[in-house]
Amino acid sequence: MEKVKITRFMPSLKQMKDMVIHEVTYFERHNNSRFTVTSRNIPRWGTWINYFRSVPYLYKWSREEEALLPKHYKDRCIEFMRKEQSPVHWRPIQMKYRFDEDSGERIPVVNAPIPVIFPKECNLGLWGGEGIIFGYYKKNVPKKKHKLPTLPRIWHPMLNKSVLYSEILDRWMAIDVTPRALFLIDEAFGLDFYILKTHEVDLCSKLGMTLKREMLLTLANKSFYPNDPVKKEKIYNKYKEFIIPAEEAEWIGLSVDEAVEKAKKLNEAMNPTKPLKEQYLYDLCQKFQVEIKH
Fold first, then answer.
1. Closest by CA position to 58, among listed 116, 112, 113, 120
2. Which residue among 103, 108, 234, 240 is buried most deeply as judged by most CB within 10 Å?
3. In angstroms, how far is the first alpha carbon of the chain from the final one?
4. pLDDT in tens, 198-235
């Protein structure tokens, strides 16, 4: 992908107030990039824009549920909620300071990600980390003398139905994908490598995590290509670096409700409940044996 040159965008006082107080996003569109590039240069020391990372699904549980869930599942959930997503709709500025053109003052550069909204529909496809953006677009026309107003606008990803093939699952699937997701799949040399290499935060899709769980379980159990041992060995050696124990793989991508239900079933299987009538019968027999001995 070609490099995008980020131009400096200094917001006006009204835009600064909207960005800090109302968390409004102002950005510019670059013709040489298929993504929207933004940079917020805050001209005051110690000023920061508070934002909350948007996610398509959450991991939240109570204390009773926390006692049931395994540690590796909770660690993955906590990492998902804390880890920042890789920049998709913006490009961070690498340098820490910039110099004001008029005064020459050194001003710290603050990289604030664009607020992205992930609807529920993104869990049914592979969007490659893209989402819906609400913001303002300022159109510049050099021929016009008067300034054009700043207009609100919504940017949404372009979705296409594509048929993708998985070597591990040996299955063709019709999935809603974005052009960026197709680009990442081609960059990773296949759907399987893209799903297995990409972190849950960057996948940003329940469908992607479901496919990852199926792939990891298939690799752990070696249940692929049972009638072709040569291809089975070839696929196993190709993806063996991603193999994890089946006990962990079966928990990947589960929602909290699904994980709690699974943990309850495992707990009941390991500690079966004994009917009270059997317990009373056992206690009665023990009591009679004690009385006979005396």
1. 120
2. 108
3. 90
4. 999 999 999 999 999 999 999 999 988 988 899 999 99
Cβ-contact 69, 261 below 8 angstroms:
no
SS3 294: coil
- Average pLDDT on 5-22 reads 50
Task: State the Cα torsion 219-222-228-230 to the nearest 10°.
Answer: 70
| CA 49 centroid distance within chain | 22
Q: How far apart are CA 106 and CA 92, in angstroms?
A: 18
Q: In terms of Cα–Cα distance, which of 161, 159, 158, 192 is closest to 174? A: 161
Q: Give the H/E segment covering residue 98.
A: strand 97-99
Asked whether 222 and 232 are in contact (CB, 8 A), the reply is yes
Rounded CA separation 265/61 (Å): 17
Show Cβ contacts of residue 110 under 8 Å, excluding neighbours closer than 6 positions.
40, 41, 42, 47, 48, 49
